[in-house]
Amino acid sequence: MSAIRYDNDDVLLALYVQPKASRDDLMGLHGDELKLAITAPPVDGKANAHICKLLAKRFKVAKGNVVIERGELGRHKLVRICGPVTVPEDFAAFL
Q1: Distances, alpha carbon 57 to alpha carbons 30, 31, 32, 61, in Å
Q2: So what's the pLDDT on residue 2?
Q3: Which pLDDT belongs to residue 1?
Q4: What is the pTM for the complete model shown?
Q5: Read out DSSP for the chain?
Q6: DSSP code of 94?
Q7: Nearest Cα to Cα of residue 16 among 55, 88, 61, 74
Q8: What is the pLDDT of residues 29-44, one digit of tens each?
Q9: Closest CA to 51 of 84, 89, 87, 16
Q10: Which residues, including other chains, have CB under 8 Å from residue 19's CB and lie 6 or more apart?
């Protein structure tokens, strides 16, 4: 599987998450996944909530349209963006 791909009207992201970073940023490829640095700590679901909020803002969808399908308790995640209005340029570069 590629790091980012379309699934009908949705976008699937294979992510490697680095919590407690100095800033929120897409760092590039990490093996077969996109490396996403986030400022939130990996405690009590804060990192997952932060990822959903960040991706919802970037893809211009509601937070409810960002679903972590796999990897809620780990760094390796599969995230579905349901019906994105746009794909940000930094993510589209990996399509």
Answers
A1: 23, 25, 24, 7
A2: 87
A3: 63
A4: 0.94
A5: --SEEEETTEEEEEEEEE-S-SS-EEEEEETTEEEEE-SS-SSTTHHHHHHHHHHHHHHT--GGGEEEEE-TTSSEEEEEE-S-S---HHHHTT-
A6: T
A7: 74
A8: 999 999 999 999 999 9
A9: 16
A10: 38, 40, 41, 42, 47, 75
